[in-house]
Amino acid sequence: MQERDLEQSHLLNPRELAAKTALPEHTVRALLRGSTLPADTVNERVRARLKALSDAHLARHGQRMSDLAGSISRKLGVSGVWARQVCSGDKMPSVELLHGLVDFFQVEGGEAFFTAPAPEALSRVLQPVLAAQQQEVGDRPHATVDPLTAVSEQFDDVRGIALRQAQNLPEERWNVLNATLKALLELDENEGDQ
Fold it and tell me: Among 4, 71, 92, 94, fewest CB within 10 Å belongs to which?
């Protein structure tokens, strides 16, 4: 039982989710708590996520910024100065060059990886986690139904589906996931009203 709890707490690890989304860890933690984030612009999102990806790339490969800028410069056919400014979050790339950066950094989701609001970015990463949880539960010979499943079945929307898939999360994690999904749905509703 303790192993399963450790494994499931790993599923919603804010540091790992931050790395997968190129969002700041404090933003991921706020979303997992169900907090509403301050509004930002697409340009701010793109620059911040490019900087986060660049910083992670430099740390992972033990490179200097000049090495990364040189690689991007050669791959995209842009100046090294421009590449450095983009990697540091000071410059906004064009849509065409953003597409090249998607390939360079090998991010999933195309340009939306950079442009999606934080709740959508986190949701994109959580969906496969929930699907894997559902698969794991379905593969167990005698999986027991979590008492929270009855509560989750009352929802006929995406939140209900996701909550049913997460039926084996510890209660605390289940509540965090429920709050996050609720906040995401409220954001969708608010955007639809505009």
Answer: 94
